[in-house]
Amino acid sequence: MASKVTPISGFQEWLPTERIAEQYFLDTIREVFELHGFASVNTRSVESVERLSSQGEDADKEIYAVRRLAAPADEQAEPTLGLHFDMTVPFARYVLENAGKLTFPFRRYQIQQAWRGERPQRGRYREFIQADIDIVDAGELPAHYEAELLLVIADVFARLPVGDYTIHVNNRKICEGFYLGLGIDDVIGTLRIVDKLDKIGPQKVAELLVANGLTDEQAKQCLALAEINSPDGSFVERVRALGVEHPTLDEGLAHLESVIATAAEHAPGVAIADLRIARGLDYYTGTVYETMLERDPGYGSICSGGRYDSLATDGKRTYPGVGISIGVSRLLGLLIGEEGLTASRETPVAVLVAVNDEDSRAESTRIATALRSRGIATLVAPKAAKFGKQIQFADRRGIPFVWFPGAGEDGSDQVKDIRSGQQSAADRSSWTPPQADLRPSLVSPTTD
Amino acid sequence: MASKVTPISGFQEWLPTERIAEQYFLDTIREVFELHGFASVNTRSVESVERLSSQGEDADKEIYAVRRLAAPADEQAEPTLGLHFDMTVPFARYVLENAGKLTFPFRRYQIQQAWRGERPQRGRYREFIQADIDIVDAGELPAHYEAELLLVIADVFARLPVGDYTIHVNNRKICEGFYLGLGIDDVIGTLRIVDKLDKIGPQKVAELLVANGLTDEQAKQCLALAEINSPDGSFVERVRALGVEHPTLDEGLAHLESVIATAAEHAPGVAIADLRIARGLDYYTGTVYETMLERDPGYGSICSGGRYDSLATDGKRTYPGVGISIGVSRLLGLLIGEEGLTASRETPVAVLVAVNDEDSRAESTRIATALRSRGIATLVAPKAAKFGKQIQFADRRGIPFVWFPGAGEDGSDQVKDIRSGQQSAADRSSWTPPQADLRPSLVSPTTD
């Protein structure tokens, strides 16, 4: 295999130390998801293209189709497969396929890769990892889940060095009711235009709204609504002050007020009501979330989702759900890729067992086995080189301890902390490294 | 999304309880790999088709090509991407791409999905998980690693309910040297025919060998060699008794004898020398492994690999390696899919906190937070239903404990083991479930 080796744009790979930092994130996310009672589901990587492309006009362009290189001609008629571009569409299919075997309300987490054939750019990859939680129920879904998901995410980010962040929450019913109360018929069209506010600014949005059939006054009111945000329930009063009335608006306001109040009690400072948040995807019907890092809001949302009432339906039964997804690859593209977050060493190994000579390799292996049986990651030196070379081998990899079989004057084993140079007698059946050295830890660029 | 939901042949998905059993396997494999000093690497899912298809004529047919559904016409000329069909080829590419940033000898594990477009059948999937370890060095690779990998696998399987198994080990140099000593020129051709022994039997193999230019006597000798196996070094004498001599044969015998001796010392009963093992892939150059389950050897190898001396080369430098791969999906297709191995419950949750009435949901949430902060997976009941219904909710999911806020006569919390019915006062800041109930455990069909 001597052909040229080239990276493929949009397909990120980490070096071993970076991968250990990534694993720390993935392990923590999984741990918190499980503590909050979510069960793991992994779905196959492929869905029928038909199912994938039913999700909106934009999705279509980004789908990666998958076909056997040597598919015979008669297979061309088969339904084409595509790689999934998120976890929500496959999960909705999984729920329908297994509805009779699942217990509802069903809480699942799903940490997997997804693929989108969009143009690679900062924070956007063609292959990426997402970590999703969703709660679906059969028939009715209690509203308190929409606040609960915020608390799970707050618990995850409390354990990871992500820096300051804010979860922006809205409820689509507020926009819908407000627009209807203003006498606007094209709710979805209006929502899509207002969604461009961050990109094109209020002036352009107003122009587009008027071009779409709104009066100047209606457009002004839509923009006034989108400008409202608050970390508490005060947004309700500000919406009321705009003087628009509609039962759907009342419903949305009460709902968002309750979500924000629950978040403020259990995870203060994490969430704000932000009435400009819309989310592009058509299937959201209630609460929607987007999460921005305070130090770089323009980087894009690192955790998004919302409530969907009719994504999973088999025609007879409907399974409403609410979900939120951490964009792990996007988040780590910034933290590891740009900011230099890393791990304390490139290997899980805490102890290198030296080899005195090749004839005594078996003895070094027995020591390693004894340490491993107590959960200490241990490596036996590859060659019976001079001890200086063996210590160098450990040092290059960041392995903190080297074990010398029978090195004591009385023939006992000795262990050396190669950072301090301190060496002392050690018993293979009881010695343990300090807790902080047992596994690699995260190293932030600012605290390094 | 009301379109028809159909499984896709060869793409396995588990229900939540089965997935917990799979996670137990994946976690254990990872833990042991790390204890033995392997660092995690994940490679992107795609490689250039050119690289993938350079691995032999069979590989070609099985590759899944990947292309953007809406790729513009001018993109058709780009090199086509394909999903990787194993971890070895992507890892060899990763080593070449990052050689300057890796520390050699480099030990990595890689637990990922792979895809092969072959006909789905028992134990063979189109999407499957493999768990690989490899050790590569720059220039020279010490031989003791070939024995070490066996010990890692033995350590993995000692912690999992896989049943009795045997790792069959051979060294390609034995076959090569033996064939050359017999005066056979076409070593690879002969090896490929002998590799069919299990499928077509000795009679047919002899016929094919003769058709390929061997004398009857040469064919008889090749079969005699393939029939030799032993759990110790006695195979050497039996090969010698066949009267064939060649320096490469001597080298291979000495090498295999040493691997078997090391395995017998550190993991007795696990490995046997079996001179019929050849492995289909061309890139193996020394030791080769295959692992059979005693209760169903015909199911195929669940753990295979070998030494490759020139898979990773950039023309200037060569990185010889040795690797072994657990076929996780194949193994679990038997254990979970056919034999009924499962988990003790369908959720990580150990405790359900009851809700007295919707107004006190916040109090139940605070209790859950206190339990989670001490590592106990906890769920708050979805509705303030009658306690009987809330207990039923836990029972249906296999959740062992239900927590009743303020249920004691003195207003203290109470916790009930719903299996025994025993209920007692409990402090949210100190109570813990028995270790065996903290997480779901594996349940074997035979011990159930």
TrEMBL record, chains A, B:
Keywords: Aminoacyl-tRNA synthetase, ATP-binding, Cytoplasm, Ligase, Nucleotide-binding, Protein biosynthesis. One of its GO terms (molecular function) is ATP binding. CDD domains: HisRS-like_core. InterPro entries: aa-tRNA-synth_II, aa-tRNA-synth_II/BPL/LPL, Anticodon-bd, Anticodon-bd_dom_sf, His-tRNA-ligase, HisRS-like_core, HisRS/HisZ. Residues 408-448 are annotated as: Disordered. Its EC number is 6.1.1.21. Residues 29-348 form the Aminoacyl-transfer RNA synthetases class-II family profile domain. Signal peptide: none annotated. Pfam families: HGTP_anticodon, tRNA-synt_His. It catalyses: tRNA(His) + L-histidine + ATP = L-histidyl-tRNA(His) + AMP + diphosphate + H(+). L-histidine binds at residues 86-88, 116, 130, 134, 279, 283-284. GO terms for biological process: histidyl-tRNA aminoacylation. SUPFAM superfamilies: Class II aaRS ABD-related, Class II aaRS and biotin synthetases. PANTHER family: HISTIDINE--TRNA LIGASE, HISTIDYL-TRNA SYNTHETASE. Belongs to the class-II aminoacyl-tRNA synthetase family. This is Histidine--tRNA ligase. It comes from Yimella lutea.
